[in-house]
Write a structure and sequence with these properties.
heterodimer, A: mainly alpha, D-Maltodextrin-Binding Protein, domain 2, 18 helices, 4 strands, B: 322 residues, alpha/beta, Rossmann fold, 2 domains, six-stranded mixed sheet, four-stranded antiparallel sheet, 11 helices, 13 strands, elongated
Chain lengths: 410, 322
């Protein structure tokens, strides 16, 4: 066990210092930051920002041409931001002279149809939407229409409600947040897939490099192939987890405290059983795929070949996502249940099925038992293949050669 | 000795064998057998490595040397036979054996010192002790000033020396070296030779495989010549050289040589020194006795030693022709 730990620590330290690791780890948050900035830029505040920028006169008052007489005189609380004009021509002149940002022309028949014209400069056409969506303009209209009521009523009419919802469960207790309950297993399943692909990349890279460096035989003179394989899987798995964790933390930090609160809410909404099972499938799934990839990857003579050979297991891990449509329609369909019992697809299939409905207990038992039995077997068979595969230099063996190699690995 | 050959050197061989018996066997291999699918890589190989000796396993490419070494290092498992390393199984002895494989390399982006400490840790050493040992070894091969350099910054010769240090980092009782002189310049060859001789003086055992026969002749006490997984020659190097040197003799006489001498295939004289090729059934001792019987006054008599490389080629070719 000591050797496994030494190898795992070594693999971890070597790989987290790689330039490639540092660049890729930093690249994703940087891309997220850019995307975040773009989204922010094109959202409502951005429109207002643009309007302000291009108009350059957002602090200027808005003119009012009141042909209806309902808005004259302007109430004191609005006088700082609204200025009365007797005629449209005067308001247009003021806009052209840049004394006011825009003008509202309220016709005589306003009460009949609510129509209002907005005069804006052709230099600042974005300002039109800003003004019509403005809460201040909305409050101006409500307050003047209710000018004979109390200020409190006018305020309430301008901002009629601040909503907050409380959900009541069918059993009378806390409500079941179906969507929230789906989030944790889904996040874990996606986390599993990302980790598998990320860690597998490092795993294969490490194995291919050791084959090319010819260091592996020196290592095998000190430790068993099983210890080497286990150490690599743990160490490089930790590298993958570190990278994905950094990405997730970055996302949480960028999206702010609201996401944090949501995440905590989501976790609290998930039952402990679901959480525990999701973690069990995550750990078992990662271990199994990593062992398989390392063992088959060791046969390739370089990184590209290793990726090609081990790609079949990445594909198997992704199969449940390809049948997601079926899963949503009927999470307990026979085909999906069979995929849950088959160890190579069980971890991701179960993580996909969990949030979609009640999974039969027998499926949980069979899938976990299958994984618990197959992982030691795969570790044994994988180590056997790994031991000879990693000592084969410069050639990619045929399937027959792999079979013969496996048979003579004792 | 040639496997299955009779002993021509009775007394010296007996003395040598008595000496060998008094030595401790560090590696003992009996009837070793290993097969890969249709190919028998090792076929009934038996040999020993003793304390305080340098033992060479020789053979053409594909003879089964690397497979044998990998079995000794517990990298491969034998299909048959007995293997004992330091009195136990190869697995149990792993921490006390040093190994330099033929296919070798190092972590190119790691620091020299860190590589040695990591490899020592895998052999069960604590970090501080490994560090002291690594610095000591680096000092001995003039690499102390490169301890904090990256491996890829070292020259090829320096990397070769570092690989040898990796095999010695755990202060092993036995070291197995596959082609230890490969790629070394003459200066570094001398440095490595000195290191190996020191190791032998310390009473430890060295088993090496090499195609550089001159270095094997210079360093090794005993050899094993293997082909197709089988032993062709095994034993004391000087005895083997005697065995193969026996049919060519050089001599000087005070009163010339008779024209007809029994058992001589051809003769040649150069500045008073005769070189004679003896028939296969005539030993040098028997020929010397014949000369005395013919009243030849012999002033110099010596058997001509064959270089090990020639013995190697002769035996391997002879086996292949057979």
């Amino acid at each position: 066990m000591r050797n496994v730990w030494i190898i795992a620590c070594h693999e971890y330290h070597i790989n987290v210092r790689r330039t490639g690791f540092i660049i890729v780890t930093a690249l994703i948050p940087a891309a997220a930051l850019i995307a975040f900035a773009i989204m922010a830029f094109f959202s409502q505040p951005a429109t207002q920002f643009l309007a302000k920028t291009f108009a350059g006169n957002s602090d200027k008052p808005i003119g009012v041409v009141d042909e209806s007489g309902l808005f004259t005189p302007i109430l004191p609380e609005f006088q700082a931001h609204f200025r009365l004009y007797q005629a449209q021509a005067a308001a247009e002149k003021a806009i052209a002279a840049d004394r006011i940002a825009a003008a509202l022309v309220i016709p005589q028949d306003y009460m009949a149809n609510g129509a209002v014209r907005v005069l804006i400069s052709d230099r600042n056409h974005l300002l039109g939407d800003t003004i019509t969506d403005s809460k201040q303009v909305n409050a101006f209209f409500v307050s003047h229409l209710l000018r004979h009521s109390t200020p409190a009523l006018r305020e309430r009419a301008a901002h009629p409600a601040k909503f907050s919802s409380v959900e009541i469960g069918t059993a009378g207790g806390k409500a079941t947040h179906v969507l929230d309950a789906m989030v944790v297993p889904y996040i874990l399943s996606i986390f599993l897939i990302i980790t598998i692909f990320t860690a597998a990349g490092y795993l294969l890279q490490g194995i291919a490099e050791e084959k090319e460096n010819r260091i592996v035989e020196i290592i095998l003179s000190s430790v068993s192939s099983t210890e080497l394989l286990a150490g690599k899987v743990i160490g490089l798995g930790a590298v993958g987890l570190t990278q994905v964790s950094i990405w997730l933390l970055t996302v949480l930090l960028f999206s702010g405290a609201a996401t944090m609160v949501l995440a905590l809410n989501v976790v609290s909404a998930t039952s402990w059983t679901t959480l525990l099972l999701a973690l069990v499938y995550y750990v078992l799934g990662f271990t199994m795929y990593a062992v398989l990839m390392a063992a088959t990857g060791s046969i390739g003579s370089n990184l590209k070949e290793a990726q090609q050979i081990s790609g079949v297991f990445s594909f198997m891990a992704a199969i449940p996502y390809m049948v997601m449509g079926v899963a949503i329609a009927n999470p307990n369909a026979l085909g999906l249940r069979l995929l849950s019992w088959f160890p190579l697809t069980a971890p991701t299939m179960m993580l996909v099925r969990f949030p979609l409905g009640s999974v039969p207990t027998i499926d949980i038992f069979v899938s976990i038992a299958g994984l618990l039995v197959s992982i030691p077997l795969l570790l044994w068979a994988g180590a056997r293949l790994f031991r000879l595969g990693i000592l084969m230099y410069g050639k990619r063996p045929s399937l027959r050669a792999v079979w013969q190699m496996w048979r003579s690995a004792d | 000795m040639r496997i299955g050959a009779s002993d021509q050197w009775g007394a010296p061989r007996a003395a040598r064998e008595a000496h060998i018996k008094s030595m401790v066997s560090l590696i003992s291999v009996k009837q070793l057998y290993k097969r890969y699918a249709q190919v028998t890589a090792v076929n009934g190989l038996s040999f020993d490595l003793h304390d305080g000796e340098i033992f060479a396993m020789l053979g053409p490419n594909g003879a089964g040397k690397t497979t044998t070494i990998r079995i000794l290092m517990d990298i491969l498992t034998a299909d048959g036979g007995e293997v004992a390393v330091l009195g136990g199984s190869p697995r149990a002895a792993k921490k006390r054996v040093g190994y330099l494989p033929e296919e070798r390399g190092l972590y190119q982006n790691m620091l020299v010192l860190d590589v040695l400490i990591y490899l020592a840790a895998l052999k069960g050493w604590r970090r501080q002790a490994a560090r002291r040992r690594a610095l000591d070894l680096l000092e001995r091969v003039d690499l102390a000033d490169r301890a904090n350099a990256k491996v890829r910054e070292l020259s090829r010769g320096m990397q070769q020396k570092l690989q040898l240090l990796a095999a010695l980092i755990n202060d092993p009782d036995v070291v197995i070296l596959d082609e230890p002189f490969q790629g070394l310049d003459p200066v570094n060859v001398e440095s490595v030779k000195a290191l190996l001789k020191d190791f032998r003086r310390a009473g430890k055992g060295i088993m090496l495989s090499s195609h550089q026969m001159n270095l094997v002749e210079e360093l090794c006490d005993r050899i094993l010549l293997v082909d197709h997984g089988q032993a062709l020659l095994y034993g004391d190097l000087s005895a083997i050289k005697h065995e193969f040197a026996g049919h060519t003799v050089r001599l000087r006489t005070a009163n010339g040589l008779p024209d007809a001498l029994p058992g001589v295939r051809w003769r040649e004289e150069n500045n008073g020194t005769w070189t004679l090729a003896l028939a296969a059934n005539v030993s040098p001792q028997q020929f010397l006795a014949d000369l005395v019987e013919h009243h030849v006054s012999v002033t110099l008599f010596e058997t001509e030693a064959k270089p090990l490389a020639e013995i190697f080629v002769e035996v391997v070719k002879g086996e292949q022709n057979a």
